[in-house]
Amino acid sequence: MTARNEPPRFAAFLDLSGRPVLVVGGGEVAARKAQSLLECGARVTVVAPALCERLAAQAREGRIEHRARPFGEGDLGGIEMAVAATDDPRANEAVARAAKALRVPVNVADDPALSTFLMGSTVARGPVRIAISTSGTSPALARKLRARIEGAVPEEYGRLAALAGRYRAEAIRRLPDPKSRRRFWERVMEGPIAALVLEGRDDEARAALERELAADAAAQAEKPR
Known about the structure:
Rossmann fold, 3 domains, elongated
């Protein structure tokens, strides 16, 4: 349990695309952890004598590598992140101890004290990720907050983020003044362009954004330097 005077965990979003990650454990908890890592593009290796049905299917499909044996310290070679999710506290502690000795970030399921990072509850909307953490104090509260956020943030916000990402580099190029660029994006997110996306009218939203960007770029070009 997190001590009352312990500071909160630092929130960060890591690029795991193509990164080697180790999951120790073959049950449903390990499967959930592995699935979250796969969705972020990680290369997942699972170490466990046996696998649950979901992990076994992923191994057959080549989505994960399976080492059918108990964990050994050598399994951490070349690994950039580790997750211990067995039903044996002593085995989880051994993973944590070995990972920390190698300065490999490690998460131990349901044991924040042994973990150097926590895997928060996440709401996913395309490229948008909203992570909720109670610093390990109350997973039930994290689940409750996640349910409320899921109801408040529709799937269309993922498409809005994708639209912004498509034009981000062009906006930087055509609107070099940071203040002007910030005002442009605020109008996009708060005005009719965002409304069009939320209504499912993506083509109209894209055309409107292009017109707005062109108009702002022309206005900025006309300003005296």
